[in-house]
């Protein structure tokens, strides 16, 4: 696979938004219950992510093509934690790019970014999304609760400890 570059998304223009929606729709193919209700949901959700966490919105690029992205929020009020922590709002790779190590690169960037700004990160993952749950457990995320079909996972962060695996 050609070189993968991880960059902060500089701006969410129309063309980029369309590509991110495509990645989101393809990435969750076969897992529709976890990937929203279609393109108009995806559009609203991805705009929400961008407005909430611009500084932590990272994309993986192969040449000029965006392969996937991760949205890391350093300023998330978690009602479960009762305080502000970090959060991963979205993490998805286009189907054709899954399983090639690109997710690891995005996650490492995300944890490096969050570890500089907060001491804990939470995320929610579908209960049947075993591949992703294993992926997160490998990074030291622990299952701490469940709400409906969603499993809540958290990980403690330490400054300078950005390998995390
Ligand atoms: C989860 C996801 C972002 C991981 O990115 P990735 O680039 O496929 O993952 P990598 O290739 O870097 O790492 C693969 C690891 O993740 C796990 N994995 C999770 N989903 C996988 C998939 N669809 N294909 C291959 N591996 C997957 C494997 O256990 C593998 O572990 P290993 O490195 O010890 O062999 C990506 O598979 C994806 O977009 N999945 C669909 C959307 C999703 O579930 N997002 C998370 C929601 S909370």
TrEMBL record:
UniProt entry keywords in alphabetical sequence: Transferase
- Claim: Metal-binding is one of the keywords in the record: no
| Domain N-acetyltransferase, residue spans | 7-158
GO molecular function, one example?
acyltransferase activity, transferring groups other than amino-acyl groups
InterPro entries of this UniProt entry?
A: Acyl_CoA_acyltransferase, GNAT_dom, MshD_Acetyltransferase
Q: According to its UniProt record, what is one Pfam family this protein matches? A: Acetyltransf_1
Tagged with keyword Transferase: yes
Output the PANTHER family linked to this UniProt entry. Answer: L-AMINO ACID N-ACETYLTRANSFERASE (PTHR43617), N-ACETYLTRANSFERASE DOMAIN-CONTAINING PROTEIN (PTHR43617:SF38)
> What is the protein's name according to its record?
GNAT family N-acetyltransferase
